[in-house]
Design brief:
The complex is a heterodimer of chains A (191) and B (248). Chain A is 39% helix and 39% strand. Chain A has 191 residues and is α+β, with helices and mostly antiparallel strands. In chain A, a hairpin with a 2-residue loop joins strand 1 and strand 2. Chain B has 9 helices and 6 strands; from the N terminus they run H-H-H-E-H-H-E-H-E-E-E-H-H-H-E. A 3-stranded antiparallel beta sheet of chain B has the order 1-2-5. A 3-stranded mixed beta sheet of chain B has the order 3-4-6. Chain B is of the alpha+beta class. The chains are: A alpha+beta (191), B alpha+beta (248). Chains A and B meet through helix 1, helix 2, strand 1, strand 2 and strand 5 of A and helix 1, helix 3, strand 1 and helix 9 of B. Strand 1 of chain A pairs parallel with strand 1 (67-75) of chain B.
Chain lengths: 191, 248
């Protein structure tokens, strides 16, 4: 009888445990790879439809010699999210609890869509508005819009969104508690 | 014949049995919960539980705002068509002729231009820039997403999970969740200043507010909001193990 039990026990235990919920939880490398996929989507995006106005007036003895005016709109996308190239770590704390250490959110993209340009008016008296002139303006605008996006809290929103999606995915995968921590600067450099 | 010696009983046996009982009891406790909820439709019940869990998690993601539009409108240029003949339109109005909805909208712009001392008839370089903030998201009100547990019959319609790991779900309609017209200040307004008093500014912002739908449609804001929301949900569900995600 003992021999039978000894032989059967591993099989019995294996069979019973195979049906346990924690067996369905993805392991750490799998969780890491899936978190990478989630972070590929920027957490928050600002789509600007901005207006650029170029105005140059010169006069000589109160007589206008240059009067250049250009008004146009351009769409600029500013995206923020978590760049995992800065490093990240996933640790199992206990059964059903997992700790995710992520770097802070950052601006991932600021891109002007030249196809979206719409010119409202152009006045060229005493000179022309060159292509480089308005491209410089677009470039300057992009930097301004990054600052604007930061002021509006794009980083906080991006981070909150990414964390929410990771949390939901982990909960669907069987982890009841997800602890988020920010990766320290030293860890990031090492990563 | 000498009596056969009885082999001494090993003491390991009861200990082994106790260990076995403990292991079986533990394993039972870990797996038994669904057994207490057994009914004749166990497979259906499990599927429904999974569907409710999915709807609950998708609801959380739907509630997130993932995109924000900061839209600058140029008045009056954004609101008048380039080939408009103001003289003919004004004459039609004077003669009391029938005006289409489009012509009525053009007249509204014309009257506002006059209020703001802008002359739309001649090619003028006067303009006012108004900044609006538009946020898009999903309208969860009155949908199964609000309380999936209370509407099992609607859950089955909203989400279906097939054996091959394909999940098919219908998302709520995308809507504008927020529309704000930003106040301008001398530091943020980088365009030529115009002599507009508070009453005129109110009239202008009221006009822009009334054109929200036009702005939203022209910029494809709802589509972008839906597309981004869907990407988040698809990513989350695929990562949770579903092979394919179909939005109905």
């Amino acid at each position: 009888m003992r021999k039978i039990l000894t032989v059967l026990m591993p099989a019995l235990v294996f069979t019973l445990l195979a049906g346990c919920p924690f067996q369905t939880r993805p392991d750490i490398p799998e969780v890491e790879s899936r978190i990478r996929e989630i972070c590929e989507i920027p957490g928050y995006e600002h789509i600007y439809r901005d207006i650029i106005y170029i105005d140059e007036k010169t006069s000589f003895l109160a007589i206008p010699v240059v009067d250049k005016r250009l008004l146009f709109s351009v769409d600029v996308r500013v995206q923020a999210g978590i760049d995992l190239n800065e490093g990240f770590t996933v640790e199992k704390v206990s059964r059903g609890t997992i700790r995710v250490l992520l770097p802070p959110a950052q601006i991932l993209l600021a891109d002007a869509d030249e196809q979206s340009i719409r010119q409202y008016f152009l006045k060229e008296f005493g000179g022309q508005v060159s292509r480089l002139e308005y491209y410089d303006e677009i470039q300057r605008k992009k930097n301004e819009l990054i600052e604007d996006a930061l002021k509006r809290g794009i980083l906080n929103r991006a981070e909150a969104n990414v964390k929410k999606v990771i949390e939901n995915f982990l909960q669907l995968s069987g982890y009841d508690t997800v602890i988020f921590e920010q990766l320290k600067k030293g860890d990031r450099d090492a990563g | 014949m000498p009596a056969e010696k009885k082999k001494p009983r090993k003491k390991l046996r009861p200990r082994l049995l106790i260990i076995l009982v403990i292991i079986v009891a533990l394993a039972f406790l870990m797996t038994a919960d669904p057994l207490f909820h057994l009914d004749f439709g166990i497979i259906r019940t499990d599927r429904q539980a999974a569907s409710i869990a999915v709807l609950t998690e998708v609801r959380d993601v739907c509630a997130l705002n993932t995109v924000e539009f900061i839209h600058k409108s140029v008045f009056p240029h954004d609101f008048i068509s380039e080939d408009i003949a103001w003289g003919r339109l004004l004459q039609k109005q004077r003669e009391g002729m029938f005006l289409s909805e489009e012509e009525k909208a053009d007249l509204e712009v014309y009257n506002l231009c006059k209020t703001l001392d802008i002359s739309p008839e001649r090619r003028a370089y006067d303009f006012v820039v108004v900044t609006s903030i538009v946020k898009g998201g999903f309208d969860l009100k009155g949908t199964v997403y609000q309380n999936p547990e209370d509407h099992p019959e609607l859950v089955a319609k909203a989400v279906s999970i097939s054996e091959d790991g394909t999940i098919s779900l219908s998302l709520p309609d995308p809507v504008i969740t927020e529309f704000i017209i930003e106040d301008s200040s001398s530091s943020s307004y980088t365009y030529p200043d115009m002599d507009i008093d508070p009453e005129e500014w109110k009239a202008l912002t009221g006009f822009i507010q009334g054109r929200v739908e036009t702005i939203v449609a022209s910029e494809g804001i709802l589509n972008t909001a839906k597309e981004r929301g869907s990407r988040f949900i698809e990513g989350m569900l695929k990562d949770a193990g579903y092979k394919e995600v179909i939005f109905r």
